[in-house]
Amino acid sequence: MRSPENPTPTSATAWTPSGTRPPLSSRLLRATWRGLPERRYPVGFERALKVPAADGSALVTDHYFPRVGGDFPTLLVRSPYGRGLPWSPMYGLLLAEQGFHVVLQSCRGTGGSGGAWHYWRNESADALAAVEWLRRRTWFDGRLGTVGPSYLGYTQWALAADPPPELKAMAVQVGLHDPHAFLHGGGALHLENALVSGVGMTHQHRGVLRFAAAANRLRRDLGRVAGAWPMRPAWREALGE
Length: 241
What we know:
- 37% of the residues lie in helices and 20% in strands.
- The chain is α/β, with parallel strands linked by helices.
- α7 packs antiparallel against α8 (231-239).
């Protein structure tokens, strides 16, 4: 288990909430959802903070928080799919209204973050770098959780491989924990899994419309692409690279 070089503050009451309102698109979508708990706190928002990755690259990070004084736990959400819809209202807005700081971070090479994007390679080191950054925030009270599905679940497992002492809880939703089984279960490459996940990684952080267009294109061409030889040129075309 990794220990912090500097003790984590036990109180965050010295922090004075400021920031702006969350994105309008998130607030509008939130207003359409029914059957959710009543909002407990108004929500503030800090947009596009630059948090250093393990290699020094700037990772673009949004911070949602209860706009009141007091100590609140923090949820870290690390994603290659962007920080907009659906993550902004689903995690940032909803959870901050219930009394959490929510730190929504774009992985290297995605969503405006610096560095080069590589599947799985840097997530453990970059998650620990994010925790180190949190330790220096006056609002961080030493209680940390993680949440998210799919690759956002994998980033949680990556942090848990060398868990910091602040990590108290994880909510892994349909999370990838065994990349080899996902891509090579039974010993052969799963062509459809590789292509579908590749489209998500390539386009989702670039916006809903671009992602939808790429997904529709792959749906139309999947049979042709999966049977192409050599594979690399056809796959790069299918992914829109």
